[in-house]
Please model this.
Amino acid sequence: MNTKSPNVYSISPHVSFADALVHGVMEKFGERPETLSQVTLLLPTRRACRTVRDAFLRYGDGKAMLLPRMQPIGDLDEDELALTGWQDIGGLNAINPAIAPLRRQILLTRLILGFEKEKTTADQAAQLANELASLLDQVHTEGLNFTDLQSLVPEDYSEHWNITLDFLKILTEHWPSILESEGVLDPAQRRNRLLAAQRQVWEKTPAKHPVIAAGSTASIPAVADLLACVARMENGMVVLPGLDRFMADDDWDNLDPNHPQYGLRQLLRRMRTAPQEVRDWGDFALSGAHPLRARLLSEAMLPAASTDKWRTMTHPANGLLAGVERLDCPTPFEEAGAIALMLRNELEFAGNTAALVTPDRNLARRVASELRRWQIEIDDSAGIPLQHSPVGAFLRLLAQCVADDFAPVALLALCKHPFSAAGMDSKVFRRQVRRLELYSLRGPRPTGGLSGLRSALEKREADWRKRTKRLSVYQKKILDELNGLLDALDKAFHPFSKVMKRKKTDILKLVESHIRAAEQMASIDVETGAQRLWAGEAGETCADFISELIEAANGFGELDCASYPALFDALLAGRAVRPKFGAHPRLSILGLFEARLQQFDLVVLAGLNEGTWPPDTTASPWMSRPMMRDFGLPLPEFHIGQTAHDFAQHFCAPRVVITRSERVDGTPTVRSRWLRRLENRLSGTELAEDFKGNAGWLSMQAALDYVAKIQAVAPPAPRPPVSARPRHLYVTRVEEWMRDPYGLYAKEILKIRKLDPIDADPGAADYGNIIHESLEKFMDKYPRDLPDNAVEELRAIGREVFGAELENPGIWAFWWPRFERICDWFVAQEQDRRALIAKSYSEIEGGLTFEAPAGPFTISAKADRVDLFKDGEIAIIDYKTGVPPTKKEVEAGFAPQLPLEAAIAMAGGFEPFGPRDVKELEFWRLRGAQEAGKRQAATDNPAQTAADALEGLQGLVAAYDRIEAPYGSRPNPENAPKYSDYEHLARIKEWSTAAQEGEE
Model:
């Protein structure tokens, strides 16, 4: 029979819960081994079971002993229940199995897509399905019924919530029948039934041997009911973690859901037990924190209505905060570094253990990364997200690559993944991918598909043939290798690509062809793709996911193929890889739930900021607060109370460090409400100083990367041999030589060329080239007389030159209208000039050679346009789509291109017309804006300016024909170029100053 007075105990938080529990069990039942083995311990989690098992080993000093039967009450299953009496309630077959989480998500996704029709994409539906699944679990956990949603009066709420209630008919009207047809239950519903079944068994036939439920705060009502049953059994006991022994009766009545004791108060009320009736389990003289630290926390956490009591409370005892440190860090960078130092320092003490407890996953990852400084891999209870693991990332990249029709960025991201090999030797594959990037994927995007890449290779071959008339042996080898690479990629991708080109298809076909393509793409010459992909912990986890997905997707139906990659990502999210081996045995990173009942020599509580610990009270996407209250769901503040209890338990550890960051992502933070309450309670006491931040760890963290002296570096000043210095330049390079000699050195001597961007949109340079080519073709076609429809002719030539670029909406909307305005302006200029011109020459080449100290030097030019006037003089015109140099810059010699072209012309360097006097040097600025074009004279005296430019060039060549002359970077900062492709090579930001660089 059940006793009238519940057997409820509590263990103070200042001692190790697991050790105190074991000491109590051994004191009560440890005299005879067979008696101990008949004890059943119900613990919150499997991790808690391992912790208590270790505590038994410590108690027995490692000696062999029979242990009690330990069951995790949070994830109870049939084989872990006390089976006696099950037959009376229907036996093991009375409760259907739980639906697999992925199957539930898939089925809910299908329902949402059917409800929303075309309004929601598949990946959005999958994310919504996760939210619905969470709502299902929450409702079942609280023991509620969805039919009660109908009792919510629609008129009491806004129209938005009425729409939501209509959407939730997915759960009220459709979901129950689906579960029935599948023969399954929701996981939370099934857990409740198992717990209820166990309770019914014990209510009918109380356990003959001791049953101890320990460490649970019973936030799940079904667990609370079971604990109430255990507490009233003659052989049953419930042991609570950290019940407040110092709170007054009126304070217990004033608790709100934010309070750390709120959950325990609700459990005690369900047991019909007052806090004063709870007995002490005993601390058994275990070493721990100061026993009054729990009292300090109790006083600091008083309900808001009782905080006036602080004024009359006695000061806390000295030494109460011994073992407590606090660290306020500037940013998470310093916080993570300091925590890593603390954990590393603990390893200096033989056998000591340490743990970081935090809900901040970003901070946890930072700490794990910092520990690798000492080659330490730490055990992180959250694991690694599967989608970020090598195999998960590979599968996601492959799906996205095919969906993007082999766009350059997507293709390179996939091909540069370590798993990619397409059946080839990995090193050979990587080399060929780099060449494919260089010769086909940089610059404007090729047309779609692998066929577009073949066309890009054919274009590259045509360019090579145009330059050299025939292919070299090396060029032929490259083309053969790259075509072979495309053949291998086509073989790997063809089945999946074929399926993805359909508008809709069955999701199973997508998954199966996706995996076949992945295995083919991951294969190498000596190993299959399956052997490589599915090996190791991440591979096994991913293989399990794929197997579950194939099983769960059965019956889903057809899916829009374009949405498959995003849906795959959404289904993969939330899965984690938890390494089984390789982590340090004495260090851990734990979340709040995983850290419960754990014991360590050092506990670091990190991320103590509002919004992190405690978390924000986010609104439910399904119900407003009044709706949640009326329906019976707990308000979000209840979760804050649970995290407050976690903080309270860990704060009472013997050695604890509390850390926070004052700024996160540049935004000031607010310290946790619990820290503020402790500060307020300690204000004016001798312990107030003890609870201020300790900067010692920050100093040590800063010292790790401290550099005693930063050696200033000088600007680069390479002095190559005179024989290696250029003896030929184009006039367009002379200005760079004057303004930034290092840039010329990098390009002309080191032969370094800037790579085109990958998948580049045509930029200003491409626009300029298109304008130049269009005008060149027009001038070549009509060198003397203009046709009557000159504007239409020029636009037709422009359409031909623009080509496929006009299909780009941005180019069609922005560039083409500008070009049309340029056509109008240009033809108007031509109509006025043609009467004075004998002939116009476009893109005409010429050169000039002169003697220099190290030998002859040749300057070459390719003039945009040269007009031969009828009087025998010429005009040299440079088309500019950007901002041309000013007359002052030209005459001062800082923009020598046009003057040097004039010098070449005056010397007879342009063969078609021999030596000529230069009448005009002009820039034609072709903007295509409201002012479509503008003519700008480069100088008032072309002949003198040309002579000065040539003289300046000769002096420049003579200066650099001396070995002592360095190719410095920006020798005159005020005349430095606004942009250079070689700034990073010159490491300008390392040696330049604001005074030198002006705007830098």
Remarks:
- The chain has 38 helices and 24 strands.
- The longest strand covers residues 837-850.
- Confidence is low (pLDDT under 50) at residues 82-90, 994-1000.
- The two ends are 85 Å apart (CA to CA).
